[in-house]
Specification:
This protein is of the alpha+beta class. It has one domain: OB fold (Dihydrolipoamide Acetyltransferase, E2P). It is 15% helix and 40% strand. It is built from three helices and seven strands; from the N terminus they run αββββαβββα. A five-stranded mixed beta barrel has the order 1-3-4-6-5.
Length: 136
């Protein structure tokens, strides 16, 4: 598990938890993989905050004030801001907002991502000249 501040450094295989602040409305977007639901929010912990794009059905399952755990997230840059994304086979779970909630999570590797997620990560790498803080 890393902090929101560390997640802002970018990468993949990111496991982070925090409290939701400023959740936007869920909207449906046309993507090259079809229509998908998405919402933006900020995930906050003691270290800071990170913008998060929650995709799919998870977008409707969380609300402002919820504490969540994200497993297997990866970062992209959107409108000059680092943004954490949940992969299609990643995990978002509501958790207790207790300070001592450090749940065990699996360590993500390249084979855990879908081809679509890997394509997005590769695209991000090419946009930044191949510089990537990740581990895939």
């Amino acid at each position: 598990m890393i902090t929101c501040a560390d997640a802002n450094l970018g990468g993949s295989g990111i496991n982070v938890q925090g409290k939701i602040e400023g959740k936007d409305e869920v909207r449906t977007m046309d993507t090259k993989h079809g229509k998908r639901k998405v919402c933006n929010l900020y995930l906050v912990d003691d270290s800071g905050r990170i913008k998060v794009a929650i995709w799919g059905e998870d977008a409707e399952k969380v609300k402002d004030g919820d504490c969540i755990s994200i497993e297997g997230g990866y970062t992209t840059t959107f409108r000059n801001e680092i943004q954490l994304n949940n992969p299609r086979n990643g995990k978002i779970e509501k958790i207790s907002c207790d300070d001592n909630n450090d749940k065990q999570v699996k360590e993500w590797k390249q084979s855990d991502y879908t081809p679509e997620d890997l394509e997005e990560i590769e695209k991000q790498m090419s946009r930044t000249g191949g510089y990537y803080h990740g581990s895939i």
